[in-house]
């Protein structure tokens, strides 16, 4: 057997560079690069290996380990899980900074390879700088934090262990059902140790998406159930986009007259203008989608994990006899809440189900009802997003301004706070992938780093990042990274001086405004933060505007700019869209000295009676 002597780190990097995939008939590297912030735990081993391979496997430098992993996660999502990236850090804080991003990837079923440095396997210099010492377990290190947020975790304590570990990593990263973050904790002394690796470990391997087809019995049962439906509804989740099944879903729904509602992950599956697209469903849903959901007797849930925002904490689907068909590659999701499972790839499953249904169509009355609900919602939504002369516009009015400026090919990126709720119901996506929202983990600080990953995945599309001042202050350093890498973003910062979304939730549950808006937090003086000056100091083109008209003019300028542009405007922290949506289970205290809390508790208890508990 032919071998080549390499360090463990060199072997890992060479193996990564040899992994390929096919996209549009072209064979391309499946790893688009490695994000790296070096420290004593990875600079000598991984750093040396990445430098030698930089032509085949580019290395990108960021300013925060969590942010660079967010960028990698967003790249994978924007690439429909066909390509992905790795991220390497030193031990200690560098490693644990990536744990939050690992959780984002885990919740959203997205591939990313995390390569944190680890302690010395030899233990000779223990305790090393930044080492966590467990008094009762010598095998524990800081990297054990990754275990619950990794689909696969391994610690490499001998160089040859990288062979089976990397093989397992690749199967998880590319598997449609298991897909998620992989963590290979690399002991820093082992990174530099050499081994005679078999040359076969570095042979090119091409990974193509697996498309498991439906079981015959499950397919027959699902088709029979759909044919019995009087008011069927399709719920499209992110799995539709990951499977590149949007065209198949369109054909399927048109053939059978089925209205479609979209989750946060599934939004942009169909163009907003499509007659069967009812838009967002659930807590942040449109009145059209939720009206149909309340009456639906059969729900075909495609590629969704049925999160509480989708189901209205299981209070939305009111029909007492309703049944759910779970079309999903992952049985864990397909079986949820006693759904009738249809375990299959979304595209293959829809093809099979289409054939099984033959010429069956939903009743013309139900399809017409859907069209009426959609038209009605469109009139309502336009009132919230239209132009205004208000000094402090609402989030919805800002969304409307960006929408009027956007083109069908553009991508809008968001994450936590109030914006995702407004964008889910009000943004009109024009093309698949044009709506990129991290709402599985609802992670503040994802937006700017995520925008970088989106732009790297598809440089031809204009990327708009929308975020509040709270998220901006949590993680803004990657503005400098975007400028450094020439990755242009248009960032719109809505400054409502605090955490406006949670302030509204606090008041809705009977609480007094407290510790969310800056004015309601303990302070000696209120900060006057110049976000435009700050963004400019990081290298961006930046300006602050007053009002919607000025925002639209600035957006037009931004499209012509050659680098990342930040536009800041003041917004109203109290306004939100009160049309559409559904109740969400946020527990209210049973006992309080505040009468407002006790009133909210009474409303809460009444709403609990609408929840469906499936045993």
Automatic annotation (TrEMBL):
Residues 48-131 form the Thiamine pyrophosphate enzyme N-terminal TPP-binding domain. Residues 417-568 form the Thiamine pyrophosphate enzyme TPP-binding domain. Residues 219-353 form the Thiamine pyrophosphate enzyme central domain. It comes from the Bacteria. Keywords: Hydrolase, Thiamine pyrophosphate. One of its GO terms (molecular function) is 3D-(3,5/4)-trihydroxycyclohexane-1,2-dione hydrolase activity. PROSITE patterns: TPP_ENZYMES (PS00187). Its EC number is 3.7.1.22. InterPro entries: DHS-like_NAD/FAD-binding_dom, Myo_inos_IolD, THDP-binding, Thiamin_PyroP_enz_cen_dom, Thiamin_PyroP_enz_TPP-bd_dom, TPP-bd_CS, TPP_enz, TPP_enzyme_TPP-bd. PANTHER family: 3D-(3,5_4)-TRIHYDROXYCYCLOHEXANE-1,2-DIONE HYDROLASE, THIAMINE PYROPHOSPHATE ENZYMES. Belongs to the TPP enzyme family. This is 3D-(3,5/4)-trihydroxycyclohexane-1,2-dione acylhydrolase (Decyclizing). The gene is iolD.
């Amino acid at each position: 057997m032919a071998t080549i002597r390499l360090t463990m780190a060199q072997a890992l990097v060479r193996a990564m560079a040899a992994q390929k995939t096919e996209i549009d008939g072209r064979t391309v590297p499946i790893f688009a690069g490695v994000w790296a912030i070096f420290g004593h735990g990875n600079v000598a081993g991984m750093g040396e290996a990445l430098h030698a391979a930089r032509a085949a496997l580019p290395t990108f430098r960021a300013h925060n380990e969590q942010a660079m992993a967010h960028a990698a996660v967003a790249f994978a999502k924007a690439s429909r899980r066909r390509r992905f990236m790795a991220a390497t850090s030193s031990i200690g804080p560098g490693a644990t900074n990536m744990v939050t991003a690992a959780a984002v990837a885990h919740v959203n079923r997205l591939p990313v390879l995390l390569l944190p440095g680890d302690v010395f396997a030899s233990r000779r210099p223990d305790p090393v700088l930044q080492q966590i010492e467990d008094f009762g377990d010598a095998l524990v290190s800081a990297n054990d934090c990754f275990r619950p947020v990794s689909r696969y975790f391994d610690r490499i304590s001998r160089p040859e262990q990288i062979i089976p570990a990397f093989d397992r990593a690749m199967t998880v990263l590319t598997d449609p059902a298991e897909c998620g973050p992989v963590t290979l904790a690399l002991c820093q002394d082992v990174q530099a140790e050499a081994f005679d690796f078999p040359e076969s470990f570095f042979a090119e391997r091409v990974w193509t998406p697996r498309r498991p087809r439906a079981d015959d019995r499950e397919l027959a049962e699902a088709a029979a159930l759909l044919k019995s439906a009087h008011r069927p509804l399709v719920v499209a989740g992110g799995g539709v986009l990951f499977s590149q099944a949007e065209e198949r879903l369109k054909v399927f729904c048109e053939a059978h007259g089925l209205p479609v509602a979209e989750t946060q992950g599934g939004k942009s599956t169909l163009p907003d203008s499509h007659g069967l697209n009812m838009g967002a469903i659930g807590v942040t849903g449109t009145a059209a989608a939720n009206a149909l959901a309340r009456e639906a007797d059969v729900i075909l849930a495609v590629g969704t994990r049925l999160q509480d925002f989708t189901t209205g904490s299981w209070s939305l689907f009111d029909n007492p006899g309703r049944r759910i068909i779970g079309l999903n590659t992952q049985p864990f999701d397909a079986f949820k809440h006693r759904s009738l499972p249809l375990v299959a790839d979304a595209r293959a499953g829809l093809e099979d189900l289409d054939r099984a249904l033959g010429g069956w169509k939903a009743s013309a009355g139900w399809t017409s009802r859907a069209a009426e609900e959609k038209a009605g919602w469109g009139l309502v939504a336009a009132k919230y997003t239209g132009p205004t002369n208000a000094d402090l516009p609402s989030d919805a009015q800002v969304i409307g301004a960006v929408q009027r400026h956007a083109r069908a090919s553009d991508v809008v990126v968001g994450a936590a706070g109030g914006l995702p709720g407004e964008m889910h119901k009000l943004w009109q996506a024009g093309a698949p992938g044009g709506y990129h929202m991290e709402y599985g983990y609802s992670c503040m600080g994802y937006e700017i780093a995520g925008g970088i990953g989106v732009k790297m995945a598809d440089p031809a599309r204009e990327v708009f990042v929308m975020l509040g001042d709270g998220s901006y202050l949590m993680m803004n350093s990657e503005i400098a990274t975007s400028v450094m890498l020439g990755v242009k973003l248009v960032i719109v910062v809505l400054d409502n001086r605090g955490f406006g979304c949670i302030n509204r939730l606090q008041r809705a549950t009977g609480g007094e405004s407290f510790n969310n808006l800056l004015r309601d937090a303990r302070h000696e003086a209120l900060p006057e933060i110049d976000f435009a000056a700050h963004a400019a100091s990081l290298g961006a083109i930046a300006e602050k505007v007053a009002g919607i008209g000025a925002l639209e003019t600035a957006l037009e300028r931004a499209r012509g700019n050659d680098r990342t542009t930040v536009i800041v405007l003041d917004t109203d922290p109290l306004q939100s869209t009160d049309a559409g949506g559904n109740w969400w289970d946020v527990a209210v205290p049973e006992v309080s000295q505040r009468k407002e809390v006790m009133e909210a508790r009474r409303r809460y208890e009444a709403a609990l009676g609408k929840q469906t508990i499936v045993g």
